[in-house]
Specification:
The radius of gyration is 27 Å and the shape is flat. The two termini are about 35 Å apart. It has helices spanning about 15-35, 45-70, 80-100. With about 110 residues, the protein is mostly helical.
Length: about 110
């Protein structure tokens, strides 16, 4: 089935579509003038930087985990113990951030 969107108005389809196009171009031109434009018009630079920093941080985190596993004896060592300790330290740090004054707001969980 094809779904069709019907607009019920007294204006003709060509006049309503031209009005929509004019409103869209006015809105996009005001957005571009507000944002600044330039060579990176359509790229969200802060978001791209966040992805870059996350990727680089994850890369070094994985290298550190591999070195810790090798230092503990490799796959014959204690990989579950190392993973559990990392989870415990991260959990304690997260709980501390919620309990420390002025660090972060405690999350509000509801059943809604």
């Amino acid at each position: 089935r094809r779904w069709r969107h019907h607009v019920h108005s007294s204006a003709s389809p060509s006049s309503s579509s031209s009005a929509l196009a004019a409103a869209t171009s006015a809105s996009s031109s005001s957005a571009l003038s507000t944002r600044g434009g330039g060579a990176l018009d359509n790229i969200d630079v802060p978001l791209m930087l966040y992805f870059l920093f996350w990727y680089v941080g994850n890369y070094y985190y994985n290298i550190t985990n591999k070195l810790a596993l090798k230092a503990a004896g490799g796959s014959a060592g204690f990989p579950m113990l190392i993973s559990s300790l990392q989870l415990a330290v991260g959990s304690i740090y997260g709980i501390f951030l919620w309990l420390a004054p002025d660090a972060r707001d405690r999350p509000h969980v509801t059943m809604d």
